[in-house]
Amino acid sequence: MTNINPNVLPIVPIRNKVLLPGLALRLQINRKDTVLIMQKIYKSSDNKESKSLIGCVPVKPITSKENPDENIPSPDSFGSFKSASPKKTIEQTFDQSNRSSDLHNYGCAARIIRLDRTVGGGFTAVVEGISRIRVDRYVFERPYLEAEITIFPEPAIPHDDQELQGLAVSLKSTGRELLAMLQELKLPTPVLTQLQKFIDGASAGALADLLISTVESSYEEKLKILDAHDLKTRIATSIDLLTRQIHILKISQKIHSNVEGKLSKKQKEFYLRQQLNAIKEELGEHYDSSTDDDDVTDLTKRLQEAGLKPEADRTAQRELKRLKRMHPTQAEYQVVRTYLETLSEIPWSKSTTDVLDIDKARHQLETDHYGLTTVKKRVLEYLAVLKLKDDMKGPILCLLGPPGVGKTSLGKSIANSLGRKFHRISLGGVKDEAEIRGHRRTYIGAMPGLISQGLRRVGVNNPVFLLDEIDKVGHISSHGNPSAALLEVLDPEQNNTFNDHYINVPLDLSKVLFIATANQIDTIPPPLLDRMELITVPGYTFDEKIHIAQRHLLPKQIAAHGLSPNDVKISNHVLLKITTGYTREAGVRNFEREIASVCRAKAVEYADAKDKERIHIYHPEVTEDDVESILGVEKFDNEVAECASKPGVVTGLSWTASGSGGILFIEATQMPGKGILQLTGKLGDVIKESAQIALSWVRAHSFQLGITNSSTESTFFFQRDVHVHFPAGAIGKDGPSAGVALTTALVSLFTRKIVPPTTAMTGEMTLRGIVLPVGGIKEKVIAAHRARIRKVILPSRNRKDVEGDVPANVKEEIIFVYANNIYDVLQAAFEGEKIWVETPPIVEVESHL
Ligand SMILES: Nc1ncnc2c1ncn2[C@@H]1O[C@H](COP(=O)(O)OP(=O)(O)OP(=O)(O)O)[C@@H](O)[C@H]1O
User: SMART domains in the record, alphabetically (predicted)?
Assistant: First the structure.
């Protein structure tokens, strides 16, 4: 880190103002330079003393020829002792256009005591003068000015210097005289007390600086005081100026007393307030009111540039008028200012140009994501329509799928392919309608809603908004109904006049391309669902995951860890070990995390070898053993193999709440009792009813299945209780699709016959034993494949789903058995074992016609 040498300081040119030691000044600063200077200052934290020092150097005065208005006394100098106010248009900023040759030779070293952002994106800094400096040589001018300086510490008055002693006494008495005049003006006591304290306590040099800054003087006079590092000259000049001011005050008081009677109470208050501000400002206690004026001008300009819609413009003008009438210390001032700032930042008419090149878009989608064919196809159709019709009206796409399957990154890729800006709005946990629609401005701490904030952030009115986790948005409550607000956002017929309570003028969202994502469908309110076109993004098979890893995740992680593609090589079988042994998910998020851990370890190894100059011993290949030493022992065993076969246990296929498929073990056990069926595992009503149906069917066919000895025996089931449990008890389960698995589990329990754990099943069963089709087949089958299931028993009416949707490699590795009725299921589940003593009756097949 570099130290700031106190003899070399960054130079901040200031216009029309002079900073003197002991005084504070507010500067408006052009952003680009500030960032650079601030970086320089704050980075060099080693040298605390000089840490936040800058040199404030006034710009040379413009001669009256160059600017004839400059030396005309300001009209507000009537009796007041406000310093000659700079022309409002000339800001006391430092900007790139100032060259060293424009600057005065003397300045003041200052410490930055506060830094605030302004509306225009710049900064204002409050600086405190420390000591006079002379600029000896500019070290460089770009990107900001920096100069070698000489510091002039404040000299003490030597005891034997009679002349200086005398001057100091004279300064104090002139100061007291000025104070007496001010007391007559009835200024507030705290200000006067402070001034009194200075006069009594401050050294002559400091007092000269302070008093001079409170009297009316021209820029040139102020520069003269700045140059006067010699005490004698400084005190003498100050006495002159003070005496002149006292004289002016006396005259003005005379006029004032004549006029005062004619002033209304309001005018008088205004007049006194002006004076108070001037004093406070000079004492460094007050904001620079010109800054606020600049704020308003700046706001007006920005509102003009924002191209507001007529209705918004009317509101803006009305509020601007109110703002101008307000005093900045009023609490309401900030509220109105923030509101106008928000209005000016909404992209009313700014938009990006769409790149509607289907071929390019196809290429982009293909490069960013592996697989996901349906989604890509649908997106391209969407773009094609957009190209032909030039209108975004149409259903909102909703990507539905488990976490980590690339829904968010697909959204980003769509935005990229369209050449649009992308913004993600996370709706998970949004319970309050105001979060979508904003708070009314009467509310303390009111803010615009997520949609308006998103527009503000992207700065254009045609971005791609990804409404993430739309299924987690809250429903009606005491805080309103966020999903109803979303409905308005997503409705192409209404969203050109979306009403954000904070903005309070209609916003046009019709150019925004909304894409929603959801993990599950059940919790999406039906009206919202109705507006959206669902595109399912199913979980990946191991094969797909390995492709994704080789093509996307691994190169991404290698680059993220500062390595080059040849520095880490992971073969497919090692990747397979990572995904099977360390992750259990439908998507690839954890897989990516584990790959990142491997890359991190390789990065350390690589850097180490490089440091020791033994790069030749570094091996880019990652072996299975490396994986174990980096990631530890495998977290997940082969799920199915782990489960020993037992009577009463059957592997079912589920569609979990997270939207992914999964396998689940249904456990049934019996005990002596009274014929009670107990069900556990956080089950919904439908699944409970399926269990009842299963038990009834088994009881009805108990003789046929060899469970009871005669078809009339009824005691068997009355002497025992049956308990069925669905493990992972904390996760809610529902739906009819466990019907066949439940029946099989009960048959297995009572017949003591075993279903191999590598056989899984799904399907609804009627009381007559007919097997009905269920949903989510693709996800369930993919999950079964992930869990190394060999045989899957499915309703025969689901055959088309397997044939149409399931990836070929999965189909190759799994045996599918399609069942019309429960007898087919039992036959397949018990793998040809003889399960019935009597030939099963022919079950008639339901007609679908
Ligand atoms: N098919 C794919 N091709 C390339 N990368 C993918 C694919 N699917 C997922 N990824 C990568 O997986 C990571 C996780 O994806 P992303 O964050 O988009 O998941 P998500 O589905 O939005 O999850 P969530 O529902 O939790 O928000 C990203 O780095 C993404 O690039």
Answer: AAA (SM00382), LON (SM00464)
- Which of 88, 120, 152 corresponds to the end of one domain? 152
CA of 68 to the centre of ligand 1 (A): 66
pTM: 0.58
CA separation for the pair 400, 659 (Å, rounded): 8
Task: Using alpha carbons only, give the angle 522, 524, 527 rounded to the nearest 5 degrees.
Answer: 120
Residue 492 CB partners (closer than 8 Å, separation 6+): 392, 393, 394, 510
Tokens in use for 372?
A: 């996901």
- Same domain for 65 and 20, yes or no, is yes
Identify the bridge partners of residue 789 per DSSP, sorted by sequence position.
Answer: none
Q: How far apart are the C-alpha atoms of 749 and 650, rounded to whole Å?
A: 10
The identity of residue 145, as a single letter, is L
373-389 and 358-368 are packed helices; what angle lies between their axes, rounded to 10 degrees? 160
Looking from the CA of residue 556, the nearest atom of ligand 1 is: 29
From atom 5 of ligand 1, which residue's Cα is the shortest distance away?
A: 369
Task: Please list the residues that pair with 765 across neighbouring strands.
Answer: 771
* Known active-site residue 737: yes
**CB 164 within 8 Å of CB 233:** no
Q: Taking all residues of the chain, what is their mean pLDDT, rounded to a whole number?
A: 80
Q: How far is CA 417 from CA 390, 613, 733, in A?
A: 16, 44, 40
682 belongs to a structural domain = yes
What is the C-alpha to C-alpha distance for residues 269 and 260, in angstroms, rounded to an integer? 11
Q: What are phi and psi of 750, to 5 degrees?
A: -80, -30
| Claim to verify: residue 168 and residue 57 sit in the same structural domain | no
The number of distinct structural domains making up the chain is: 5
Pocket mutation for ligand 1, best pick of 408, 424, 536 (most atoms within 8 Å of C-beta): 408
Query: What ipTM is given for this predicted complex?
Result: 0.95
Rounded Cα distance between 666 and 435, Å, is: 42
Establish if 641 belongs to a structural domain. no
Peptide bond just before 672 cis, omega within 30 deg: no
**Contact by Cβ (8 Å): 242, 175:** yes
Q: Show the tokens assigned to 252.
A: 């003005």
Span between the terminal Cα atoms of the chain, in Å? 81
For residue 549, the CA-to-ligand 1 centroid distance in Å is 11
- Verify whether ligand 1 is closer than 6 Å to residue 405 (CB atom): yes
780 assigned to active site? yes
For tokens 């993430």, the residue is 468
Residue 380 lies in a domain: yes
Q: Candidates 365, 376, 405, 523: which one to mutate for ligand 1, based on the most atoms within 8 Å of Cβ? A: 405
- The H or E element spanning position 254 is helix 231-260
> Does the residue 335 lie in any domain?
no
Active-site pick, 52, 417, 654, 737: 737
Nearest CA to ligand 1 atom 3: 369
Residues of the chain falling short of pLDDT 50: 1-4, 45-47, 49, 64-96, 286-289, 641, 657-658, 848-849
- pLDDT at residue number 82: 36
The whole-angstrom separation of Cα 70 and Cα 66 is 9
CA of 422 to the centre of ligand 1 (A): 16
Range of the domain at 398: 358-536
Which string of DSSP letters, residue by residue, matches 34-87?
Answer: HHHHHHHHHH-TT-STTTTEEEEEEBPPPPTTT-TTTTSPPGGGSS-----PPP
pLDDT at 371 (0 to 100) = 83
What are the DSSP calls for 139-207, one per residue?
EE-SSS-EEEEEEEPPPPPPTT-HHHHHHHHHHHHHHHHHHHHHHHTT--HHHHHHHHHHHHHS-HHHH
Q: How many Å is the Cα radius of gyration of the chain? A: 40
- Are the CB atoms for 60 and 104 separated by under 8 Å? yes
Does one domain contain both 487 and 609?
A: no
Residue 548 Cβ < 6 Å to ligand 1: yes
501 lies in the same domain as 433: yes
Note whether 198 and 78 are same-domain residues: no
